[in-house]
Automatic annotation (TrEMBL):
InterPro entries: DUF2771 (IPR024495). The lineage of its organism: Bacteria, Bacillati, Actinomycetota, Actinomycetes, Pseudonocardiales. It comes from the Bacteria. It holds the Pfam family DUF2771. This is DUF2771 family protein.
């Protein structure tokens, strides 16, 4: 039997819309929605922290996590940070950048069937990063 491990899913963002955007994560037949743990204005000068906004989604080793972002994130530069443990337990990091208007979804995967996703983080980039 394979033990389930938790993947912390965190959203940080900078937006021009009112209120923080929500990102949907899907894996192993379960869906969770997450608001940002940090939400800033487009110039990254005025930020609100929501430390309790991080969510957990349990997925089996080798299982992917699908990410769906709203148009408010798609229309800006954004990226996905993925941390996963390989079969030997070594922590690895992958990062995928998306240009404005190009993607509403992404599938985060560990490398190999024994890899375990540990953290999947969506980061919306503000003008300070663009």
């Amino acid at each position: 039997m394979t033990a389930l491990a938790a993947g912390a899913l965190v959203v940080t963002g900078c937006a021009t819309s009112v209120g923080p955007p929500e990102v949907t994560f899907y894996g192993d037949g379960h869906t969770v929605n997450a608001k940002p743990v940090l939400h800033c204005d487009v110039l990254v000068r005025d930020c609100d922290k929501y430390p309790d906004a991080a969510v957990t989604l349990k997925v089996r080793p080798g299982a992917p996590v699908q990410i769906s972002v709203p148009a408010a994130i798609r229309d800006t530069p954004w990226l996905v940070n993925v941390q996963y443990a390989d079969a030997k337990g070594n922590l690895n990091v992958k990062q995928q950048y998306f240009s404005p208007g190009t993607r509403l979804s992404y599938t985060a995967t560990p490398d190999g069937p024994q890899g375990q996703l540990v953290v999947v983080e969506v980061q919306q980039l503000g003008a300070a990063y663009a």
